[in-house]
Amino acid sequence: MCLSTAYRNEKTDSSVLATNITNIRIDGDRVFLTDLMDETIEVEGALQFADLIGGYVIISSK
Fold first, then answer.
1. For residues 36 and 20, what is the distance between their CA atoms, to the nearest angstrom?
2. How many separate domains does the chain show?
3. Residue 10's domain spans which residues?
């Protein structure tokens, strides 16, 4: 199983949005991140980059 960490705008420790992400859904300007415990957070922004081998995604948002 591949799990990812989601970051806001850049990959730094202080910009972590969520960890252990199993699912990403995009609906317009909303990004929904669901984690291993089936909890979902909603972020206003857009998917900027996804490194599926490295296990991280970057969401551009305000």
1. 6
2. 1
3. 4-60
Contact 55, 3 (CB under 8 A): yes
Q: What is the DSSP string of the chain?
A: ---EEEEESS-SGGGEEEEEEEEEEEETTEEEEEETTS-EEEEESEEEEEETTTTEEEEE--
List Cβ neighbours of 14 (8 Å cut-off, separation of 6 or more): none
pTM equals 0.92
Q: For the chain, 62 residues long, give each residue's pLDDT as a single digit of tens.
A: 689 999 999 999 999 999 999 999 999 999 999 999 999 999 999 999 999 999 999 999 97
